[in-house]
Amino acid sequence: MALPVLVLLTGVLVWGVLVGAAQVRCVDAAREAARAAARGDPQGQVLAIARANAPQGAAVAVSGQDDTVTVAVSALSRAPGGLGGVLSLRVASTATAAREPGQVGTSGELGASR
């Protein structure tokens, strides 16, 4: 009886680590993309940076005001094995950065990607 409980506990612990790793990747992706957008990098390059750092299948949204830019990254973290469709959590992060001097922003939505 103890073996199935240990296997279940191990699965839950692995799932927790995977969720934590996905959250950290969302934080990194949002931060790096916000830095790139604040520098004035082209929109396509900002989205490419976010996609490269985010978990697979993550949604990325970039918006900006005159003096700041905000990047939001969200992804679905699925449980390992056959439970991925049943047990899944959405992880997300948002980062805001001040535009570099000389960079002119436009108000409103700059772009979104999946």
List the helices and strands and how they pair.
Elements: H1 2-39, H2 43-53, E1 59-64, E2 68-78, E3 88-98, E4 108-113
Antiparallel strand pairs: 1-2, 1-4, 2-3
Describe the structure.
This protein has helices at residues 2-39, 43-53, and strands at 59-64, 68-78, 88-98, 108-113. The protein is elongated, with a radius of gyration of 18 Å. The relative contact order is 0.22. The longest helix has 38 residues, at 2-39. It starts with a helix and ends with a strand. It is an alpha+beta fold and 114 residues long. It is 43% helix and 30% strand.
**Major sheet details:** 4 strands, antiparallel
DSSP helical segment count: 2
List the secondary-structure elements in sequence, H or E. Answer: HHEEEE
| Helical amount | 40-55%
Count of distinct strands: 4
Instruction: Point out poorly predicted stretches.
Output: 106-111
Share of residues in strands: 25-35%
**What integer value in Å does the Rg equal?**
18 Å
What is the mean pLDDT?
86
What sort of overall outline do the alpha carbons produce when their principal axes are compared?
elongated
Strand order of the largest sheet: 3-2-1-4
